[in-house]
Amino acid sequence: MRSIAVVGASLAGLRAVEELRTQGFDGRITVIGEEPHRPYDRPPLSKAYLTGTCATEDLRLADAADTDELAAEWRLGVRADSLDPAARSVGLSDGTEVVADGIVIATGGRARPLPGAEGLAGVHTLRTLDDAVALRADLDASTAGVVVIGAGWIGAEVASTCRTLGLPVTVVEASTTPLARVLGATMGAHCAALHADHGTDLRTGAGVASLTSTGFGPWKRVTGVVLDDGTHLSADVVVVGIGMRPNTEWLAGSGLPVDNGVLCDAGCVTAYPSVVAVGDVARYHGPDGPVRHEHWSNASEQPAVAVRNLLAGTTIQEYRSSGYFWSDQYGTRLQVAGHPADADEVTVVDGSPHDRRFVAEYRRAGTAVGVLAMNNPKQFGRLRRQLRAGAVPA
């Protein structure tokens, strides 16, 4: 290979470029990014950036000198619209195309919108830097408070940040126990208790019927959220955190299999050996079937394997996710490793959930498959190392 196009200029895309150079590729690299920004870190967007303690320049994943050393061409502010794997060409929104011997798909995803909220001022999703800029401006001007729809990781972090800013916050969650799908009902409830500890009103088992608003046309602005039971929650800021959708529409007609992500083999190689996928958009074949991760650690770790296979022209190494991710909420550090959802039992092995400091171990048929910690990084690190050395692939 003499040229490679990396489609996507966030963490996974940057790591792919770095891995290409680290693994000895000295050809031409073209990076295509829809956003106008150089690669930046997303986790602070829901926390330090919203509070104003983190500036835009602090988000950069690499400074100018670092990116210059990578000797890549950066095509930013332009969207990939099509892919022809046979011709190895990527069609761009500006009418040009990039032809390369190999292609790395790292297009990530976009936040799921709330139906009926289109064009309504004060309603936000949080996925990009521009999203965070707009949300921060509205939070600074808020007088009626905030409603967060969705009590997953992003929703919980935003709620925590809003409380730090002194704003009244209500979190609306459709399930009876937040995070139960990932952590199980018992541990999910312990994590959700952080909301009540810090004065956040958590409404579980609640659906959203509609949004109320005032004004018309471009001046139409949200005034609250109506729940399924008729309850009206006043708010001049609504943050929607109901998941994301992988960015795969541009691959229509390419011949690449797509199903909730770009389908890949265990080494992140698609149906075409010259095309690999990494990060949030990649749905690779794991030990129990196709799986897609939306974690920072996955986007950082996966490109090393994908690039190795791309340069080899075939799958010579399989990827196994560490399952590691973290969340900072209300001054509390939550850490997860492995695959807790696969467990058939969970046991607190250190500390106490009631003290908001503990470590829980998840087991399946007696074998550790996951670890959860709250404010207990030392014990978490020890059990995480044991998990990675264990018999169950992580």
Could you give a short description of this structure?
The protein contains 9 helices and 26 strands. It has 394 residues and is of the alpha/beta class. The mean pLDDT is 95.
Overview of this structure, please?
There is one protein chain. Helices cover 24% and strands 31% of the residues. With 394 residues, it is an alpha/beta fold. The strands form seven sheets. A five-stranded parallel β-sheet has the order 3-2-1-7-19, covered by helices on one side. A five-stranded parallel β-sheet has the order 9-16-10-11-12, covered by helices on one side. The protein has a five-stranded antiparallel β-sheet with strand order 22-23-26-25-24, sandwiched between helices. β22 and β23 (332-338) form a beta hairpin. The longest helix is centred in the C-terminal third of the chain and has 17 residues, at 296-312. The radius of gyration is 22 Å and the shape is globular.
Topology:
Layout lengths: L2 E5 L3 H12 L5 E6 L14 H4 L12 H6 L3 E4 L3 E5 L4 E4 L4 E3 L2 E4 L3 E3 L11 E2 L4 H13 L4 E4 L3 H12 L4 E5 L6 H4 L1 H13 L3 E4 L3 E7 L6 E7 L4 E3 L2 E4 L3 E3 L15 E2 L11 E3 L4 E5 L2 E3 L4 H17 L12 E5 L2 E7 L6 E8 L4 E8 L2 E8 L2 H12 L6
Parallel strand pairs: 1-2, 1-7, 2-3, 7-19, 9-16, 10-11, 10-16, 11-12, 18-20
Antiparallel strand pairs: 4-5, 5-6, 8-17, 13-14, 14-15, 20-21, 22-23, 23-26, 24-25, 25-26
